[in-house]
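Title: Prediction job returns without error message
Component: structure pipeline
Severity: low
Priority: P3
Assignee: unassigned

Description:
Job completed but the reporter wants confirmation the result is attached to the right record. Sequence as submitted:
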Amino acid sequence: MKKILMITIAGVFMMSSCKKDRTCTCTYSQILSTDNGVPQPVLGSFNNTQKLKKIKKNDAHCNSYESTETRSTVENGQPHTYVDVTRMDCKLD
């Protein structure tokens, strides 16, 4: 009986320690910006911090990614194609 009680207490402790307050810190950076293939000035980077309450590490969804956005417009009768590449680097504490 004592052995089962100790195993149960250890299991509850392990499961409760999985859920805790965590912090997801991300840095957003614009890597590339072009207008009809001509490089344009890029934006600086900025940080975003999100506090996550009582969550398991696998449920935090604190993921890094890179994305490419392409858009076309006509300005003063001239076609323009803009390409922006951004990166979000995230770390879970």
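Comment from assignee: result matches the submitted record. The first helix runs from residue 2 to 18.
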